Every structure is written in C-alpha cells, then in structure tokens.
Fold each of these.
Amino acid sequence: MRHIVSILLENEAGALSRVSGLFSARGYNIESLTVAPTEDATLSRMTIVTTGSDEVIEQITKQLNKLVDVVKVVDLSDGDHIERELMLVKVRAIGKDREEMKRMADIFRGRIIDVTDRDYTIELTGTGSKLDAFLKAIDGSAILETVRTGASGIGRGDRVLKV
Amino acid sequence: MQLSGAEIVIRCLQEEGVDYVFGYPGGAVLFLYDELFKQDKVKHVLARHEQGAVHAADGYARSTDKVGVALVTSGPGVTNAVTGIATAHMDSIPMVIITGQVPTHAIGQDAFQECDTVGITRPCVKHNFLVKDVKDIASTIKKAFFIASTGRPGPVVVDIPKDITTHKADFEYPKTIAMRSYNPVTKGHAGQGKKAIQMLMGAKRPMIYTGGGIILGEAAAELTQLVRLLGFPCTNTLMGLGGYPATDPQFLGMLGMHGTYEANMAMQHCDVLLAIGARFDDRVIGNPKHFFEEPRSIIHIDIDPSSISKRVRVDVPIVGNVREVLQDLIKQLQAGKVKPDQAALKTWWTQIELWRGRDCLKYDRSSAIIKPQYVVEKLYAITKGEAFVTSDVGQHQMWAAQFYKFNKPRRWINSGGLGTMGVGLPYAMGVQLAHPKAQVACVTGEASIQMCIQELSTCKQYRLPIKIINLNNRYMGMVRQWQEFFHGNRYAESYMDALPDFVKLAESYGHVGMRIEKPADVEPALKEAFARKKDLVFMDFITDQTENVFPMVPGGKGLSEMILV
C-alpha cells in the first residue's frame, strides 16, 4: 500500500543521508522524497512517499523515530490529509499545438510561466495522479522536459505536525 | 582561560570519568595525544591495530556498565576501526569513538589520510558527529556519551578535524543535556504490564526467553526473582548468557541454532512466551514460518520499539527499560491473588524433563584425542565458574557457550550479532584492564586468534595475564562443519595450512606457551596456567579435527528440527 510519511528533523548536515541511508540499508522503497527547512530554520520538514505492507510501514516509522536527528514522524495516510506536487513541463508550442497547449494548461489549471516562439513552460500543481493525467492528455511527442518535486503533504483541519 | 580543542577533548573525557582510552596515534590526532601525554587521569592503552583498540574498548564496556572509549586517527585509522564499531553496534554496546580528521579546509580535497568518516560509519553507529567548531566540542562529547549509554545503547563516533584541536575556546562541561530529537523511554506502560500478568497466569506451557537486554539493562537480579516467583522455565540467547544462573534447575540452557534440545523444544511448543530484551533473530527462532506453525501468545519487553513486531508478531508489547518493567511486574505478581496454574505447570515440567533427559550435549568422554568440549568443561571446573570468558567466532564459541555455566552477567563476552572473528584477544584485554584481579580466559581457535594475533604485544606491554585457550583443530571448524553437512564434505579453503608454532609465537612476544596433546594433560595444564597469576599463557590444545557442534538447527529449518548427536 502507498503511504505518505511526514518527518520533522533537525536541519543539520547529513540528516538527509541518515534517512535515505536507512531506506536503502533496510530495503524500503522510496517513491519520492522532498525536504526543505520550516519556518523554524533549525528544523526541516520531509515528506516521503513509500509503499509496503502494514508491517513494513510500522517498521519504517519505528526505524525513522530511532534516528537521533528525527524529531517527529507521522504517517499522513493514517488520517485525512492533503497532498500536492509541483511539476514544471516544457512543451513544444508551434503551429496549431500552440493554441492546444494553452487550452490544456487552462483545463488543468496550469500556468504558463515562460514563453518563447517555439515552446511554453507550464507550471502545474496537484496530486501526483493529476500531474500524470496532464502528461497523458497532451501529445507525448510535444514534451521536451519535465521536472517534478515529489509529493508534499499536510494533515487536514487541526491535525498538526509541530514540535 | 581558553583551552585548545585538544585540551578540551581530554578534559571532557576526565569529566566523564573515563579511566582507559584504547587507541593508536597518527597525524590527525597528534594534538590529542600531546594532551593525553600531559596528564595522567585518563590512561591510554596502545593497541597494535585500530581494530584491536576498538574491540578492547568494546570488551571493557561489555564487562562493566561503563562506556568504552577508543581514539584513532583519520583515514586508515577509521577504516580499520569500522569492524570494531560495527561489532559493537550489532550487540548494542555503549561506546564513544573519537576519530581524527584532516583539517577543515582540506576536507573534500582527497587529502592525505582523508576518508568520509561520518559517511562510512553512518550505517554502523547509533549516531555520529563531525565537529566543525571548537566551541561545539564539549557539548558534542557530552551528547555522545549520553546517546551511547541511554536507551538502547550503541557506539557513537565523534570526528574532529585536526585544526579544530588547535583552536581555542572557553571550557565548561555541560552538566546535563536535553535533545528534543532524542528522548529514550524508560517506564513501561502500566496497562500492558497488567495484560502481561493475566496472560502469564493463564499459561499452560509458559516459557521465558531473554537476551542481551537483560545484561545491558542490569536486570539479572530482577529476572532471577521473576523466574523463581513464577516457577517457569527460562532460556537465554547467546548474548543473554549469565542473565539467569546457568546452574539453576529452571534454566534450560541456551536456545537457537546450537541451543539445547530442551530449550528449543520448549520454545517451539510453549503457549505463552515472555521475551525480554531479545530480538527473535534468525539464529534464535530458525525458520519463522515453522516457528508460527505452533500457536502461542507472545509478551515482548524491550527498550527499542523497533525490535518489537520486527520479525515476530507480538500480542503484548511493553516498551521500556527492562529492569524497571521487571520490577513493576514483580510488584504486581506479589500483590496479586492469582497464581500460575500449578497442575499445568507440573505437566509441562514433566515434558521438559523428558526433553532434558535426551542429554543433547553428550560427547565421547573416552576419546584418546582431546575433545574441545572437555577443555571447556575443565576450564569451568578449574575457574569455579568465576572467570570472565571471551571468545572468538565459530565452533569454539558455541562450545564455550554450551559448556561454561555462567551464573553472573557480563562474564561471557563475545560477538553475537556481527560474528566477528578476531575479537577474543582484544576483548580479553579490555576485560582484564577493567578487572585487574579477575581470571580472564579467551577461548579461541587457531583461525580466529590469528585475526588479531598482533595484540599479544599489547598484552605484554600492559602485563595482562590473560589465559588463551586455543582449541586447535587445524580447520575453520564451523566452516568445515557446514561443508561436511551441506556441501558434500568438500572442505573448500577451510583447512588451516602452514600454522605457526603457537608456543614459540607466544614466547617470542614474551609470554608463556604450552602445547597440550593428550586428554590427561588438559587439567594439569589449565591448573598450571591459572597458577601463573602474572603471565599470559597461550595454551595450544590439539583437538579432534572432526568434532561437530550439536545440536544444530540447519539454516532454513525450524527450531524443533535439530540435528542431534
């Protein structure tokens, strides 16, 4: 099963490799991993999307908690949560494709953030499956480049992960 | 007054009450050694290889309840130390390893004797630090000792670049330390304790299985009290030997791959299992599928939540310091009215005694060639069970574990998790320094001993009167045993050819050497050796080449599927 795990950890050199090293050493999957400092610059917030049986996910959260740099761990999939991913996609935009790309970006509530006479760069946020759907909807041969951040997640309502 | 980084490090060690540092000097730690030289509170023990230094510090920690401390230089000093660090990590031994690093401006430049210490050691430490500012040294070392010795213990590496040891700062050693990201649990959940008692009282075929957690958690007295109060059978893992008195009738011996018949059968067929400070590893329960074929309820007490339900599903988990949890259980038991089911218990003990009657550790006592088991039995008799026994890894380790009856914790010192050959002699050094008056025996084999043989020189320098029991069968015995059982007697590279003359070897290091070739000479030789209170005696016992360790649970088989003699 797919799980989205949020981690608060000390914003210190090497903290990221402790987490990624744990996943590779114990053979756990990482589908995506994002990390950046929080409003408190001494803390980083990490979101990991992983897959595994209930037993494996339980071990993952326990092993993460055991890392000395990790302050808090929560499996967002345990309750209501929101997740978003950002994608930048550069597409060919010439001839009749130019109008079509604009239209598709609008339908998916994307924004064109860079324009040349030959291409557009479209910014799109949403769940991973929405981004997948966009890539499927446009002409694959028109895609020049894609960059995705991986998912970030947050609990709904008063579900808060804080020190 | 401002102190140099090097002075601060040594002052920190003094503040921590460190009496021995095991190490080996080199370029990146010269300032640290200079400061060690200028004081005499912290004594340095010069090993002959960094691996030996770390093992010795590890042995020191295992035989005491103190943190073992090692000091090595950058680059190869660190890589040589890695085996020692990983060995300590697998067995949760509290250690602080201070490593030199190239100067901060040279880090990442592929400098002479540079390696990424924090990166290399990350998977085999509880935590590690790179100190980048002299002002951080004291708090980092405080944290290192705190992390190493609390919760589930483990080794912590502190990497200090050379220039940091010359920079100056004010020194004040923090009295306490609080870390928001590290708060190990101590007290177990009271409600869980109640559930556990209920389950134990309802048991028809109970079993108590304990591991290294009892030793590390200083809970042997509590365990003994609990087991006697309940009247249940008790088994120890290899790491847990000495946690419960081995001469007590309620003790079924060690369990696992080379555990006793009665311990493995009782483990497999119990209906309620109380596991304490143990982790159900592959050498203990054999094939997990086979283990699950018999339904049983499991109570698991451990300080590390990640040990619980890792390999075996647990019904009542209790996370906490084993000693405090056991004290709590004992109190509840004494206050409670319900007693264990005596009729069921009687039937269960009758069954266990039948299994025990199988006499699974028997061997040919009339052999004209020295049987290794006989040597360990005699060692036990002559030392009256009071010795500290270290071992290496292989057949001799199993025989020592099976035939030396440990009645006290911290007397049996071996590498259980990583299974590191070569630990025996350096372990014995650490133990002998921690207990100068005690009898220390290193039970080893001719293959293992050669992996850290250079430490005989250290033993001479520090006058360590260790007794080395070399069970010399001219084979890497355990490898040969597996090749005999599972590889059609093809003894690929397991024969130890071109062995040194160990008597002469010992003598060349300034020690006493003996060769013992006949069973009748075993006892007199051991007596003579232990009478030499000031000498290291290397006893080379020429033993039966074909002897195997029984019982044996072959890899992939279930606990009750033992090969018996």
Amino acid sequence: MGPRGRKRMLTAGKYLLYFVLLVLLYVLQATPGFLAVRGIKPFLVVPAVIAIAIYEGEFIGALYGALGGMLCDMGASTFYGFYTITLFLYCTGVGLVLIYLMKNNVQSAVICCLGYVGIMGLIEYIFYYLLYAYPGSWQVLLFFLLPRALFTGLMMPLFYLGERALFQRFEELIGEI
Amino acid sequence: MKDFFKSTRFKILTAVFIMLCAFMLRATVSGGITPLTSQLLSLITTPVLKVTSSISEGVDGAFRHFFQAGAIERQNAEYEEKIRILTQQVADLENYRRENEQLREYLEIKEEHNDFTFTSASVIGRDSAERFYSFTIDAGSETGIEKFDPVITSNGLVGLVSEVGKNYSKVLTILDVAVEVGAYDIRTRDIGATTGDIALAREGQLRLAMLPKECEVSQGDLIYTTGYGGIYPKDLAIGEVTAIHTDSSGMSMYAVIRPLADITNVKDVLVITAFEGQGEQVFD
C-alpha cells in the first residue's frame, strides 16, 4: 500500500474510532445509575461531538453531530429528531465559529457546550413544560435542566483534552507517512 | 465564511439536513414507530445496554463477587478456580431467582386477570435526556409490544409505552405530567384522574385530581384504574393516598398518591400487550 493509501486507512480508522467511542459514550449515558447525582445525569455524547467539531471542522463535525443526535434521540423523551437536527446544526456552527471567531481552547469548548445544553434546556422547558402551563414547571428548569446543563459543562474539559490528544496523535501518525 | 457557503461541503451538508428533516417528519407521521436510523443504531446499542445495565444493577450481586474474587486471587492463587466457580453459580442463581420472581409475578397477575397477555422486559436504560423517571426496556415490536401498551409490575401500574423500536421500547411513567389515568378509590368509589405533578414527582408521588369536593377519600385508601378510555385495564393498582388537599380553585379536591410500584428503581416490568376492552373508547 502506498503512502496515500496508508493515510486514507489512518483517517478511516480515526473516523471509525470516533463512531465506536460515541456508541460507547451513549451506552454509558443510558446505563441506569451511571454518573447520576441526585437523579441528574450529564450528557456524554454532546460534549464528545462538540469536541470533534472543534478539531475536525464544520463538515465532519456536522456529520458526527447528527450521529450523536440520533443516539441522544434514542433515549430522549422529546420528539424524534430533536437532538439530531439541533446537534447537526450546532456542530456545523461550532466548526465555523472555531475557524473564524473563537480561539481553540478549553474555555471556548466549555462555552460551546454550555451554549448547546443551555439553549436545548430552554427550548425543552418552553415547549414541553411552560406552554402547557404545568403548575410548578419552573422547578424542572431549576432542579433538572439547569443542573444537567452545568454537569455536562463540567465534563467538557475532559472530552476536549481527550479529543485533542486523539486528534494530535493521528496527525502525527499521518505526518510520519 | 462566504467560501463555505459556496463550497461543495455546504451543498452536501444541506442535502444531509434535508434528509434528516425528512426522517424527522416521517417519525412524526408514523407515531410510535421509530425511523430506520434509530432501529439500526438500536441493533448495536441495545445488546450492549443490556450488559451495562445488569452490571450497574448487580452491585449487590454477581459482579461484586467477581471483584472480590479478583482481590482474593491476588492474595491466594489456590482459591482462584474455586471462587470463579462460586461466582458463576451466584450469577446463575441470581438469574434464576430473578426469573423465578418474574414468573411468580406473571402467574399471580395472570390468575387475577386471566384476560391479560404479557411480555416481560428488563429496564436497560435511563438516559440523561429522559424525564420523570421514564426508561427504556429491552423488548419491542418483535415481542408484540405496541405504542400505548400499559406497563406494570406485580405491585401495580408503572406507565405506558410511548415509543416502540424493533428490540426496545420507551416507557413514560405515571409520574410524567403528560400521562393521565382514569382512577377510583376502591373504598369510597370516588372517581378522578391521576396525573404527574412536577413537585410531587421529585418525591416519587403523583396526584389524583378532579375529585368532587364532597368526596370521602382519605389517607391510606388504595387507588385503582377505572379502565375508562381503553388504554389501561380496569382494576390495576396504582397507589396509596398519602394526603388530601383542596385544589387552587377551591372547587375540587386532589389526593397525593404514592405509587405501589417502585417506579424510580424498577428493574423488571411486564408489558400488557392485550386485555379485554383494549382500544375501546379511545379517542385522540
């Protein structure tokens, strides 16, 4: 196999690894009791796809965003496609914003992650609770959606650093060819 | 940025976006049947989830013994084989015990309601995006489960199926604000409807609303399903009244109910796939 072929193999291997990691993260996210603090569990797939979008750019980021969204939709109580569409669009945006507007660092990653879970939490609150005028619906925002967003934001540096290590390792391997 | 909007990548992403929207619309139109993408992903994730959920719930069971065996192994190699066999036996016994319990529950309910057809299932997922303790079970359309099938344990009603995949289903619990069940007090025969309440759900309780002001419901009374609507069978136990209050309008009463089924920690459930009167009087 020539150098170009080996480069392609490595790139394909990296994308396959992302896929496997996302499935594993979804399994952990859905495992009863895993990382649950007083009934609140963080998203694990969301920070992972945002980290991928940061390093891989808007195109690959968008595709993995859609995949991550499909996984999230499997377990979510919202309508099917809620996370698929929003993560697809958001990861495209993150990829572009990181190229043109923001610096590629941990702070930017945490801001991007909090931005997504915050906006989604707010949309979920408005369309699934507030519009139905359930009594005490603010409690969902305060005791469920907000802690979940913060918990997910706290996890983001881990995913960012993990993705950075993975991305750089693959870049080195490809560069050596 | 302008370059991006003129690029081929942008065109491909737009095509993908349109395709995703089409999937979403199809899912909305088809109701409880999840789209192809979800079905395909579930083929990978459901078997893995079964393993991880049993690991998670088996802290008091076989897995702890497994870890203990590891520690003993390091201390004393000669016990390794013995402990491995014992561990396997404990795991087998635990499985038999659970299976036995499930069959016993099945039999008890079957004797009480001989018109029921069941499918047993285990809880394999409680996702961070799920609300009001809703969960995913390891049985789907392959085993005859359909949207709106009631989900129970031997203790009482748990909820209903809200979405069906080939090998998994999502269950909304009776603690959810979107789930309403026609119910009555078995002692006084007062009729109302149970519904989730955001504040009460945090304590694992729900509310029996629309009770007349002159109702005689009191603490300790048992609440059962009326069967009205054709979604839930008649006379399924829901819960026990823990308090009675006048509602904010002052026109009616509501009771606070503690479900008899342990909804927040349920691990095995039965899905009623058919019962007498199912689907009668159902209206959207």
